Amino acid sequence: MLVIGRKPGEYVVIGENIKVKVVKSNDGDLRLAIDAPKDIKIVRGEIYEQEHLQEAK
């Protein structure tokens, strides 16, 4: 796992076509803006874990 620090407005690029940008909300929380092709499935971590727990049963 790569751990990298990014400030609001900065981003990382994964492969040739996925861009993950750090944005700051009005509350001061950090959010991620993900720009990826429509055929790439993106899910939140808690949903991913729920799906995989159900598969293990």
TrEMBL record:
Matching HAMAP family: CsrA (MF_00167)
Keyword Ubl conjugation (UniProt): no
Role summary: A translational regulator that binds mRNA to regulate translation initiation and/or mRNA stability. Usually binds in the 5'-UTR at or near the Shine-Dalgarno sequence preventing ribosome-binding, thus repressing translation. Its main target seems to be the major flagellin gene, while its function is anatagonized by FliW.
Statement: the UniProt record of this protein carries the keyword Repressor: yes
Organism per entry: Crassaminicella indica
One Pfam family linked to the record: CsrA
Subunit structure, as described in the record: Homodimer; the beta-strands of each monomer intercalate to form a hydrophobic core, while the alpha-helices form wings that extend away from the core.
Keywords assigned by UniProt, alphabetized: Bacterial flagellum biogenesis, Cytoplasm, Repressor, RNA-binding, Translation regulation
Main subcellular localisation: cytoplasm
PANTHER family registered for this protein in UniProt: CARBON STORAGE REGULATOR
Similarity comment: Belongs to the CsrA/RsmA family.
Gene designation: csrA
Protein name: Translational regulator CsrA
Database matches in InterPro entries: CsrA
